[in-house]
Amino acid sequence: MGVPLLYTQETWLHGRSVSSLLILAGLVATFAVNVALSYFVGFRPGRTHRPKEDAVVGMGLSILLSALLLLVLDRVGTETSWENVLGVAALTSIPVSIGFSLGVALAPSGGGQKSEQIQGGVGDLLVAAAGALVFALNIAPTAEPMLLAAELDGVRLGLLVVASVVLPYLMVFYAEFGGREQRRASDGATQGPVTETLLAYAVAFVVSAAMLAMFGRVDSMNGAATARVVTLAFPASIGAALGRMLI
Questions:
Q1: Which residue has the higher pLDDT, 122 or 152?
Q2: Nearest partner of 156 among 83, 240, 69, 90, judged by Cα
C-alpha cells in the first residue's frame, strides 16, 4: 500500500522538512490504528489477542522495509543526516504498516470468492497483470520513474530487480496471509513458487513498459528506457503480488 508514496518527490522532500514532532505524532496515531486493526482483524490469521505486540512488529518491519527501499532508490545515503533518514523512513512507513495490519483482511482465508474457477497458470498471470496495471498506472504518468531511472546506477537497478522478485515471492508464498497454503499447493508447469514469481515479474515488466510507452516515456528499448521500465516494474510487481494474493 505504501509503494506509490515511495515514488513521490513530495515525500522525499517533506520527510526532510516536516517537523519531527509532527512525524512522531503521525507515528503515534498510526500505532493506535494498527493496534485497533490487529485487535479486530489480527496481524496473523486467528491471532487477535496480542494487538500491541503485533502493532510494534508491523511498524518495526515497515520502518525497516521503507528505509531499505529508500536506500536502494538512492533517496537516502551516507551523506544524509540520521534525522532526515528517520524522517523520510517514518513518513513512508505509515501506509506500509497499515498494509501489514490489513493484510489478513485483504487476503481471504480460503482465497477469493470463486477463485477456484481461475484455472492454471494463465489465470494467475492474468490476475497478476491486473494488479500490476493498477499500481503502474498510478505512477507511470508522473516524473518520478524518469527521475529515478536517470539517477540510479547499474548496481541499484540490479538490486531493484532483486527486490522486485524477492519481495513478491515472500508476500505470496511465505507471509501469513489468507490462502497461502492453497497458493503453495498449486500444481502445473507455471505454478511452482519460483517459476510463477519469475513469470509474474515478466508480466509486471511488460505492463510497465506498455504504460510508459502509452504516456510517451519510452519509444525504443535502449539503456535509458530499460532503466525506466525496471524502475516502474518494482511497484508493478508488488501490485501483481497483491492481485495473486486475492485468489
A1: 152
A2: 69
